[in-house]
Fold these 2 entries.
Entry 1:
Amino acid sequence: MSIPYAMLKALNGEEPYLDKSNRDPKKQAEFLRLNGNMKGKYLGACLDSCRWGGSMSVMWEMNVPEMVYFVQNWMRQNKKEFQSLWHEKKIEDMYTRFDLPYINHNVCPSNGEHNETILDNGGRTRCSHREIKIMKPSFIHESSSFDNHSLMEKLEIYDCKPYDPTPVEWEDDDGNLVDYSPEYEEFQKHLDEYESEEPINVTDTCYAIIREDKNKPLPLETILKRLNLRSNYEIAYCVNEFEPCKKINTLSKEDQELYKMLDHCPGHMQRTKKTEFPFDGWDLAFYVQKWYEQVPEGKSPVFERK
C-alpha cells in the first residue's frame, strides 16, 4: 500500500492540507463548493481537505452523485485551467501503473464452474450459464433485486412448497390442548394441490459480467461506485432501533401491518449519504483525471445511462 500523499508532504515539512479554519470535513466541503473557493486549487488538495481519515480507508460525507457534483463544481470554478490542476504530481511520477476499475475476471465471478459466455450490446462478456429449475407454476414466488455480478435488476424465482404451520406440541404454556386442526387442514389442502400439479421447467440465466471492453469509456459515476467501499443503501432508524417507528403512516399497507406488530423500528432502507475509499483524496483526483482523459475534449460520460 502506498504512503498517502498528504503524509509525504508532511514528512517533507510542507502543509499537507488546505486551510480549514477549524471547519470539520462536512463544513469544509460546503465552504469549498461556494463560488471561487476552489479556484486555482488542486483537485487532490480540495478532496483531501474535506474527508475523514481512518487506518484503512477515508470517508467523505457525500454520496456518489454528490461527489460527482463536487468534481463538476471544481471544474466550473477553474474553467479551462483545471486540466493542469488535478494533482501536484503526474500519475507516472507516483505510479508505474494506474488503471480505471474495469471489470476483468478470468472466470465467472458468480460461479467459477460456469463456462458459457455471450457478448452483449455494450461489448461486455457475460456468463450465459443456464440453470433449469423444476417448479410448480401455481406456487412460484418472484422477487426482484439488484445483482452485483451482473450489475442489473434480476428476477429471483422460488418454488414455495406449502409448509406445516402447526407446532410439534399442540399445547399452550399452561398445558391446555390447543386445536390447530383448521390450520392443519388448510395446509394439507394446499399440499395436495402442490403435489398434484404438473411441474414446469424454469430457466435461470447467470448474466454475470466477466470482462468489459476497455475501449468503452466508463462514466465518472460508475468509477466512483466501483471504488466506493460502502453499499449504495443503508438502514436508517427513526430515532434508534429500540423505539417505535415514527414514519409508519408513510409506509405501504403491507409494511404498516408488519411495523404495527413490533415495539421498535426495524429501520428503513435509504441511499447512503457517505462514500468511502481505500486511498486519499489525492489518489481520487488521479481517478478523476483518468476518467476525463478517456475521450478527447472532455467528452467522457459523467452519469450512467438510466
Note: The first strand starts at residue 52 and ends at 53.
Entry 2:
Amino acid sequence: MSDQAGTAKPVSRRRFLDIIVGAGLLGWLATVLYPVLRYLKPLSGAGPGGPIKLSADEATRLEREHYVIVRSGTSRVLVFEDPAQGLRALSAKCTHEGCTVQYLPGESIVWCACHNGRYGLDGRVLAGPPPRPLAQYDAQRDADGSILVKLGKS
C-alpha cells in the first residue's frame, strides 16, 4: 500500500489565488447588493399609530416659531398655527420625493425646499412638482392647554 492515501495534496499557488479573488468578488457583490435590497424592502409597519401629544418643548417651539415637526414612528407631522391662530396638522413628507416640508408663516404656505414645491395651508398643491396633496390630520388644544394630533384621515 502506498502512503499517498493518508497525505493531503498541497494547494497550488494558482488555486490559492482563485480562492482569494473569488472571496473578494463575493464580498464586493454583497456590499453592492445589500444597500439595494434594503432600499427595495418596504418600511416596517411602525407608522403612525394613535394620537400624538406634543411635549412641553414642542409646544413651546410651536408658540415661538409658529410650527413644529413631530415624529410618530417613521412618519413626520407638521403642526402649525395658521394666520387665524387655528391649529393645523399635515404630513411633513413631500409627495414628490419625500423631503421634509416646512411652514412659512410670512407667506402662509407650506414649502418643500428640495424642488420648490408649494402647498396651501390645507395641504393642496399650489406650485411645483408634487403630484398629490399632503395628508391632513386633526389637531386640537385640550382643556389643559396640551396639543393633541389625531393621525389618520381627517
Note: The beta strands are 52-53, 67-72, 75-81, 87-91, 102-104, 109-112, 117-119, 125-127, 136-141, 147-150.
